[in-house]
Design brief:
The structure is a single chain. By secondary structure, the protein is mainly β. The chain folds into 2 domains: 189 residues, Cathepsin D, subunit A, domain 1, CATH 2.40.70; 176 residues, Acid Proteases (Cathepsin D, subunit A, domain 1, Beta Barrel). Helices cover 11% and strands 38% of the residues. Strands 1, 2, 3, 4, 5, 6, 7, 8, 9, 10, 11, 12, 26 and 27 form a 14-stranded mixed beta sheet that branches. A 5-stranded mixed beta sheet has the order 13-16-25-17-24. Strands 15-14-20-21 form a 4-stranded antiparallel beta sheet.
């Protein structure tokens, strides 16, 4: 995941309440944060750091310093933070329950909470889990460090009751964190909930969503996201309604038509949520992008932008008249004329899905040029595409334009067209 930029949906919670969930599926509203007071150039610095963070996360670079219930489904409200930078939702832990906001990240698999032992390294105001007040906590002395692109979190393993929406796991394993790197999370969040598969969990623990599935609590072996857009709204606050996470199924309020599922690439082990980029178009015209291992993509709600291999990025921006490669610290990024109405579509073996200009245009840099949201993930690294790392990291720049579904059996990812209530193709949200 990238550093938090959370912006909440301006879609009201009443929308969710007005639409009953089919099959008793539970839906969680999301929140998102954004950086609203920075200049475009300052934002460029943040995006540049985010690019480097993502390279670390997926192994393109290495850090020098490492530190049983009835079946149902439910909606959980999400918050959009920092103008589409990150999306979070409330999670409770302990007995009696203590509630904290956690980043929702399909690009990792570990769960952790900051604790009262983190006072010296956590940002001021960070919510902290008081382990001494939980009568159900099972602590351990096993130390562990979790490494992300934007830093690391370390502490000890523990077990306790964890609840999200109506779902509870009474013996969930997670990390009680006492040290975090600067910039990993901001002072309003208390940790990260990884939504990938257990094979990439540094704790070797079963992720919360997978534990619910194993406990036969889900109506369907899937969860799904509708996330909102506020990055192009000058009036948006740092936190806006972020959308809805549905655990155990889907919510037809937010999509229309069929869900286009594509199984994981042949021979791949469930780890990240993997897809193969099969086609790319720029303003309706096909461009040639690498195939094979260089087309392997991780679908990542914890990443703000879209990272792609050099040949693909050059082909995409080469099809945009007036585009310019940036240099220096911003190498790997491209600008394009702000007057250009740009649509880039991605296909994953099935239907092609357009990305709105509102998400591709990250703001003006100067001289009529605007920053593009698709960057070269391989720039500045020595890692060769196809060496075991996903070559594409498809984040919220794309995911704001679709309803996304993550299915465990068979392992697959599905996309559907947003409904009118969710903004449709107009990009209203």
């Amino acid at each position: 995941m990238l550093p938090s930029i959370v912006a909440s949906l301006s879609l009201s919670a009443a929308l969710v309440a007005a639409a009953p969930s089919p099959n008793d599926v539970h839906h969680l509203q999301l929140a998102r944060r954004s950086i609203r007071t920075r200049s475009p150039l300052a934002d460029l610095e943040a995006y540049t750091k985010a690019k480097t963070d993502l390279q670390y996360k997926y192994g393109w670079k290495t850090h020098e310093d490492d530190v049983s219930r009835r079946q149902s489904s439910a909606d959980v409200a999400i918050t959009n933070q920092g103008g589409d930078t990150s999306y979070f939702a409330p999670v409770s832990v302990g007995t009696p329950a203590q509630v904290f906001d956690l980043v929702l990240d399909t690009g990792s698999s570990d769960l952790w909470f900051t604790t009262t032992a983190c006072d010296s390294s956590c940002p001021g105001g960070t919510p902290e889990f008081d382990t001494t007040k939980s009568t159900s906590l099972k602590p351990s002395t096993q130390a562990i460090s979790l490494k992300y692109g934007s830093g690391a979190a370390s502490g000890t393993l523990a077990q306790d009751t964890v609840t999200m929406g109506p779902f509870t796991i009474s013996n969930q394993i997670f990390v009680t964190v006492d040290t975090i790197s600067t910039g990993l999370i901001d002072g309003q969040l208390a940790g990260i909930m990884g939504l990938g598969f257990d094979s990439i969990a540094a704790t070797d623990a079963t992720p919360f969503w997978q534990a619910l599935l194993n406990a036969n609590q889900f109506t369907s072996p899937e969860f799904s996201f509708f996330i909102t857009r506020f990055g192009n709204d000058a009036k948006a606050t740092d936190e806006e309604p972020g959308g809805v996470l549905t655990l155990g199924g889907t919510n037809s309020t937010f999509y229309q038509g069929d869900i286009d599922f594509n199984d994981f690439p042949s021979g791949s082990t469930p780890s990240f949520w993997l897809q193969t980029v099969s086609a790319v178009t720029v303003n309706g015209k096909s461009v040639t992008v690498p195939g094979g291992d260089s087309a392997l993509a991780a679908i990542d709600t914890g990443t703000t932008l879209v990272g792609a291999p050099t040949a693909a990025v050059n082909a995409i921006w080469g099809a945009v008249s007036g585009s310019q490669a940036l240099s220096g610290n911003q190498a790997g990024f491209f600008s394009f004329p702000c007057s250009t109405s740009l649509t880039i579509s991605l296909a994953f073996g099935g239907k092609s899905w357009p990305i709105s200009n509102a998400d591709l245009n990250l703001g003006q840099l100067g001289a009529g040029q605007c920053l593009g949201a698709i960057f070269d993930i391989t720039e500045g690294t020595s890692v060769v595409p196809g060496s075991g790392n996903p070559s594409w990291i498809v984040g919220d720049t794309f995911l704001k334009n679709v309803y996304s579904v993550y299915r465990a059996n068979p392992p697959s990812v599905g996309f559907a067209e947003l409904s009118n209530a969710a903004g449709g193709s107009s990009g209203a949200f």
